[in-house]
Amino acid sequence: MSGRTAVSAVAGDGADVGRVRWPAARVDFLRSGAPWRAAGYLLATGLSGLLLCAGLLVSGVVAGVLAVVLVGLPLAAALALAGVPTAAWERRLVRFLDGGRVPDPHLLPERPGLEAWLRLRYREQATWRELGFTLLAAFVLWPIDLAVVGCALTVPGYLIAALPLLLLDGEQVNVLKLAEVHSPALAALLGLAGLLLLPLLAYPLAAVAAARAALARLVLAPGAQEQRIGELVRSRARLVDAFEAERRRIERDLHDGAQQRLVALAMTLGLARLDAPADGPLAARLADAQREAGEVLAELRELINGIHPQVLTDQGLPEACADAADRSPIPVATRFDLPGRLPAPVESAGYFAVTEALANLARHSGASAATVDGRYADGRLTVEVLDDGRGGADPERGTGLTGLADRIAVLDGTLTVSSPPGGPTLVRVEIPCAPIDRGAARR
Hints:
- By secondary structure, this protein is α+β, with helices and mostly antiparallel strands.
- It folds into three domains: 27-222, no CATH class; 234-308; 311-443, Heat Shock Protein 90 (2-Layer Sandwich), CATH 3.30.565.
- The protein is built from 14 helices and seven strands.
- The strands form two sheets. Strands 3-4-5-7-6 form a five-stranded mixed β-sheet. Strands 1-2 form a two-stranded antiparallel sheet.
- A hairpin with a 2-residue loop joins strand 4 (370-377) and strand 5 (380-387).
- Helix 2 (34-66) crosses helix 8.
- It is elongated, with a radius of gyration of 34 Å.
- 26% of the residues are buried.
């Protein structure tokens, strides 16, 4: 076992959370940075717990006094969320101790905004577990943390400093406020005892730090139900990625295989028409066959474009949406203000949301015009499709928007439909993302 993992609480996401690995009695443990990380961990948790204790006491008193005039009620409600930043800090400290990540148990809100975030946080069990751990850290754990790290460092430090302090004073030194030492020989023996005691105390220090980290993992990591939800989200994301890869493979096979063979067939039929008598029945049949091949080729190209258009891969979301607008039977104006290319899954989800919305308004809305407006702000892509149709769109009636909402949800995005009777209909897609370099864009 290496010195790094000797004090680690197991960093698993499930069954191993909370199980402590006690430090092994090996020399490499003492030579590693594990004892110092354990001391730094307990010092950080102790000091932050002390500050948290003072902050909670002051905030609680202020909220109680102001509650008489109802002003303190929002502050009291905000104190219930004190565990959220505290838990985030504790998870970072655990990672500092042993390098293992503690997963965040919180879900992302279904839509942006403070209201949605607050509503979700107050409903989550993780919020109340974090509040309980915050109260435990603020009023119980921090004195233990500081006492352990203080004893492990100050007691050997006092013993080691006995001889230098005696030589500086010249007469006596008060060791640990317990005994007066006048003899340099005795002070030297105490210093030697401190040097021996310092590595010995590193083991209980590391054990306490590991137990403290295990408690943090047990309370602050996702519970069994939250882990199942997280695994479902991850599995859905993997399925969507696999589906997207299969779509691209089918598009390549159709483009490079069936489409090329249809082009060759149409050319062969055209050459055969040149060899056939112009006024004979064979020429007419060849002309019909060539026309049918051309129509099949056009349909195949439309199918390929629907699977994954090449313009989306080559030029990005604005040009792909402009191309879809040009093919719409209803006049559609497009406006985009993007900082550059976005991740391929984000562009793909935005494009298919636009094409589905345009297909729906062409079939059902009775609209005479529509606009597609895309913008990027505050780390979020927003695409809106607005038409002047009759309204009354209902995603539950099989318009294809439900599947799109699931696809966008995998990217932590939201799909919102506003379609009152009489119109207008607004379809809004919001997806959190970050722009990518042009050279890193997927080709």
